[in-house]
Amino acid sequence: xxxxxxxxxxxxxxxxxxxxxxxxxxxxxxxxxxxxxxxxxxxxxxxxxxxxxxxxxxxxxxxxxxxxxxxxxxxxxxxxxxxxxxxxxxxxxxxxxxxxxxxxxxxxxxxxxxxxxxxxxxxxxxxxxxxxxxxxxxxxxxxxxxxxxxxxxxxxxxxxxxxxxxxxxxxxxxxxxxxxxxxxxxxxxxxxxxxxxxxxxxxxxxxxxxxxxxxxxxxxxxxxxxxxxxxxxxxxxxxxxxxxxxxxxxxxxxxxxxxxxxxxxxxxxxxxxxxxxxxxxxxxxxxxxxxxxxxxxxxxxxxxxxxxxxxxxxxxxxxxxxxxxxxxxxxxxxxxxxxxxxxxxxxxxxxxxxxxxxxxxxxxxxxxxxxxxxxxxxxxxxxxxxxxxxxxxxxxxxxx
Length: 400
Prior knowledge:
Elements: H1 7-10, E1 20-21, H2 26-46, E2 52-59, E3 64-71, H3 74-78, H4 83-96, E4 99-106, H5 114-126, H6 131-144, E5 149-156, E6 165-172, E7 181-192, E8 195-207, H7 210-222, H8 225-228, E9 236-238, H9 240-249, H10 260-263, H11 271-274, E10 279-282, H12 286-298, E11 303-306, H13 309-318, E12 323-327, H14 335-345, E13 353-358, H15 365-371, E14 376-379, H16 384-392
């Protein structure tokens, strides 16, 4: 009674493979095991912002170590022209004295990876975002991505309380005792000023049938990782097409050039005179309020403030606005629900244009905002050129 078991280890050999694939003599086993653990620590410490969910290792008979990194941001791992992954390979070879080959695999749906979801919640808690809001947003995104169930635990001095406690939330079903259930588990730690807060996440994707288990075993025997990637003298082995696309599309790897017609409008103090707008800023975070107001003031604009969705609706009802800069995550009523109510109450030509603003942007957030009736989408921290571009698309209205 009361004994706990790791959900991933519980299913090893049933349908989930091992993350380390190698054999060793008894006298070399301890040395190779500690090498494996140290190598994982080095990679995770160097690429802590790359969204790494899993690291797989494989050793061949010719003393070559193959490392497969599963990441949601392959552009950060690869670097410009492959410089980052080359440097990582050289450091690992120098440190462990083995030939190292690195393969990078992109995670298509980070919302369905429990480790990435737990790390995302922990990073939000470190930035003083409410743990309840972070948990609910994570559950919402995971269920919309196709999961059948999700459960999240947060434990520690939540909100700086004197006594530590544990809070949890879940949706759907998570059958931990069913071996055929494809359940992913991840945990992370939020290091805050009032102590460490632990985050655990379970995601139930589907039930694996015996036929699927046999097919997975056949596929793994036919195409192991070491053979799936053609051996090369150098170690950079970006996964064929998906990774190449991400390197171009990821913000970290994208060029910083800006169109000239936008660059000349950056923080233009006369923009408000040329394009006058009545602006409402709906944002609950004081720091974000001051930052947005400062940017708008440098362009000549003044904005009214609302701290949640209810106040935003009341402000729109009292006064005519051309545009509402709406934070997606707010207490009492979030930006999505407020946008739906504004769209239901006023016609499109009578209501202000709504621009969504959100931090911790994940795949599908833009579509979710547009489906709620928002007209444009900005990520935080606010990029001035994107804000200018969004404001220029707002038509000034004479009255409602």
